[in-house]
Backbone:
């Protein structure tokens, strides 16, 4: 009862107290309404940050290309060591294919045209300048046919190859009519002839190799047929062949069939061609053709157009005797039989061979088989005149190494190397989980940069490609991805090719086999953690800057410690940079580093620096 009387007594409070309570209630109500209206911005932002579970608010980097020089963006962060620009004479510097160093090596077997990288004390520690007037390449598909003269100012091929319609100079641009030495009627007509024998249009053929590619018109015109071609040519007196190819938006690298094995896994390509590539196929006991056989998939096709095919018509033009050319073709065909290749077509200037699907259907009696246990361990390994054994099969109808689905189904289908557990640690389950993870990662990248997946980024490189999930989730006719598997990483490049993607091996302590300014976007996941204590981060970042185009983009996903070191160096490299939290929140130690390379060009005042 006492408590009841107390409660009843409390109702007799003064009117002043009641008005004070009502006033406070009204005040806090109005305050809350004011905050939600958008005027209380500080509290609203705090509320949004509290509610956010992933990084949906991203830094405002400018990913557009503007074709002009802009002043550096001032940063409030501590000043990094400034890395100076190199002298303008290094505008087209290719560290491992420089002419002066190349000429000190033997010419036998094209050794002097192979990779010869500078020792540590001779490496440049400066930023490679773009030439004056450099302009963002034309977007695809216009870029296939036109290149800005200012970007690749070399007219030599327009004179030397004028009759063959490789390239023409028109005003301030080069035009590429689609011609070639062995397809004067154009690449389309040539590919149509090939397609009468090879199933190019149904998705069976996805990856191709062009040995001695010129300006890569074959690969350029195969793009619209959904075929990805890896083209290569040496850096020689045919100025800038590979540079033209990449400027057009076509996959290519500086390379040669010489004394070292090609930087690809076995059974990588569905189709390969030599169009007047002038490779001496019958020399060194057929070593070069055996190397093509190593990288050609069982059931794949090899095309030879040019000497010695159609020698009866061209022997005088080629200034060789009929007997010599006939004997050469005979030797090539005997080598093909030894490799279990069957000639399927010869008409005019073209011969087409098909590799049998397994060695049991071959019937060869004896051959010099390679003894090396790993046909994919090829980095700086000497080429040998031996035949790479195909995986064993249980019947003559089985495809050695496993049958592939047609593209695009093979992009996300389980690759045979995964299904057969041929790569240690990679299972069907881990492969499928990796696909899910990269679908999520690429989705986040597109939130950071809405231009990703558009024609803004044509030439893309994944510097540590893993199973190829980044490229697979970006797949589009608007772009292509060079999937690089570092030589110190798990060897997954065979899986990448089985998905219908392309790439190559590389050691990032050395310069990549390409010209400066050949990629629009570089992606690196876990690369710097991988190379911790292997070589200096500055060397890797300077190489990234060399091959990245002005106003190009870098996306690095790595541990926070590695990225803090990267950020310190990149702060002095004329990059606009931001560090973004992992999509699962700020507590995840993995972060995303995003950068845009500023536009600047070389000038007479640029000088090199020897600072490490």
Residues:
């Amino acid at each position: 009862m006492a408590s009841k009387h107390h409660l009843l007594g409390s109702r007799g409070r003064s009117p002043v107290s009641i008005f004070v309570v009502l006033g406070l209630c009204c005040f806090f109500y109005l305050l809350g309404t004011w905050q939600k209206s958008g005027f209380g911005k500080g509290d609203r932002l705090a509320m949004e940050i509290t509610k956010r579970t992933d990084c949906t608010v991203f830094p405002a980097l400018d990913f557009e290309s503007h074709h002009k020089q802009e002043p550096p963006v001032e940063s409030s962060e501590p000043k990094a060591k400034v890395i100076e620009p190199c002298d303008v004479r290094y505008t087209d510097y290719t560290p491992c294919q420089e002419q002066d160093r190349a000429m000190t090596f033997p010419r036998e077997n094209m050794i002097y045209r192979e990779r010869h990288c500078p020792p540590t004390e001779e490496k440049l520690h400066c930023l490679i300048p773009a030439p004056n007037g450099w302009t963002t390449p034309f977007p695809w598909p216009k870029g296939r046919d036109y290149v800005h003269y200012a970007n690749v100012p070399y007219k030599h091929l327009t004179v030397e190859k004028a009759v063959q319609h490789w390239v023409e100079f028109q005003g301030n641009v080069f035009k590429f009519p689609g011609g070639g030495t062995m397809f004067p009627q154009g690449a389309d007509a040539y590919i149509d002839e090939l397609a009468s024998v090879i199933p190019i249009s149904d998705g069976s053929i996805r990856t191709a190799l062009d040995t001695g590619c010129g300006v890569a018109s074959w690969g350029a015109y195969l793009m619209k047929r959904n075929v990805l071609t890896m083209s290569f040519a040496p850096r020689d007196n045919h100025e800038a062949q590979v540079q033209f190819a990449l400027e057009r938006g076509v996959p290519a690298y500086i390379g040669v069939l010489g004394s070292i094995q090609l930087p690809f896994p076995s059974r990588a390509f569905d189709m390969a061609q030599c169009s007047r590539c002038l490779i001496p196929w019958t020399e060194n006991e057929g070593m070069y053709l055996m190397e093509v056989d190593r990288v050609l998939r069982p059931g794949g096709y090899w095309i030879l157009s040019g000497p010695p095919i159609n020698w009866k018509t061209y022997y005088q033009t080629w200034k060789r005797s009929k007997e010599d050319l006939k004997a050469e073709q005979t030797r090539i065909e005997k080598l093909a039989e030894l490799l279990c290749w069957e000639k399927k077509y010869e008409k005019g200037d073209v011969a087409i061979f098909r590799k049998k699907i397994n060695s049991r259907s071959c019937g060869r009696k004896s051959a010099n088989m390679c003894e090396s246990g790993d046909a994919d361990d090829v980095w700086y390994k000497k080429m040998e005149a031996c035949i790479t054994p195909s995986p064993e099969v249980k019947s003559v109808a089985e495809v050695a190494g496993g049958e592939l689905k047609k593209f695009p189904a093979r992009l996300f289908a389980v690759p045979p190397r995964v299904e057969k557990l041929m790569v240690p640690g990679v299972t069907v389950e881990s492969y499928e989980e990796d696909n899910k993870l990269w679908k999520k990662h690429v989705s986040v990248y597109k939130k950071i940069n809405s231009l990703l997946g558009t024609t803004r980024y044509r030439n893309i490189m994944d510097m540590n490609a893993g199973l190829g999930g980044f490229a697979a989730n970006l797949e589009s006719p608007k772009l292509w991805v060079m999937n690089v598997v570092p030589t110190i990483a798990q060897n997954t490049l065979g899986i990448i090719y089985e998905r219908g993607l392309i790439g190559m091996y590389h050691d990032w302590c050395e310069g990549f086999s390409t010209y400066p300014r050949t990629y629009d976007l570089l992606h690196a996941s876990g690369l710097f953690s991988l190379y911790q204590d292997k070589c200096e981060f500055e060397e890797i970042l300077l190489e990234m800057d060399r091959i990245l185009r002005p106003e190009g983009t870098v996306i690095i996903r790595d541990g926070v410690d590695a990225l803090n070191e990267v950020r310190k160096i990149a702060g002095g490299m004329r990059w606009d940079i931001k560090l973004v939290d992992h999509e699962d929140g700020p507590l995840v130690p993995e972060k995303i580093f995003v950068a845009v390379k500023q536009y600047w060009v070389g000038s007479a005042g640029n000088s090199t620096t020897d600072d490490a």
In short: Residues 1-13, 30-59, 68-76, 607-612 have pLDDT under 50 and may be disordered. The first strand starts at residue 146 and ends at 148. Residues 232 and 253 are 5 Å apart (CA to CA).
